[in-house]
Amino acid sequence: NAGVTQTPKFQVLKTGQSMTLQCAQDMNHNSMYWYRQDPGMGLRLIYYSASEGTTDKGEVPNGYNVSRLNKREFSLRLESAAPSQTSVYFCASSSADGRNTGELFFGEGSRLTVL
Amino acid sequence: GQQLNQSPQSMFIQEGEDVSMNCTSSSIFNTWLWYKQDPGEGPVLLIALYKAGELTSNGRLTAQFGITRKDSFLNISASIPSDVGIYFCAGQEYFGNEKLTFGTGTRLTIIP
To answer: How far is Cα A48 from Cα A51, in angstroms, rounded to an integer?
Structure first.
């Protein structure tokens, strides 16, 4: 049972380059999320998708775009990377069916360095 | 956005000691959750609390939902080496809103 799978696990970019972080879940969950984790800042929500076909901004959306490709996949794109986007990025999913409210299942993270 | 203040930021304890950490918010949450992140992994849910005043245990872990709805506490009894990691509190504003606000984390280190 893979759960939430993120690729790549590590990436180094130069300022101005673009890239896409991929995320897929095999739990038939409705909701998916992208968080970033920075030292001393905890986890901050970038974007989320409550269901297939919908996306909404979180706390720190500037500089990012997302695509909910289908129910399984939710990608995060950096169009023009900046050093401030150096972080560890986590994708998560939840059933959002009202029974397990609050339980998010996280991937292993993608460590991104922007030089 | 909302901020959850989590303390302490880090703890250095010896194996067998008890651990206490807490989380406070400037606003009310209807659900409080505690997650643990092992090194190199994503966070995993430990305990979820859904009612003010609720006290819930999961093995050696006990968490409480503060009566004001603005705070929560996590206790770990008789710590063991696998307790090492970062503990996050998280709050949910209202039932059905799956967006969580996370605290800044408490890093637990066990001294041999």
So the answer is: 9
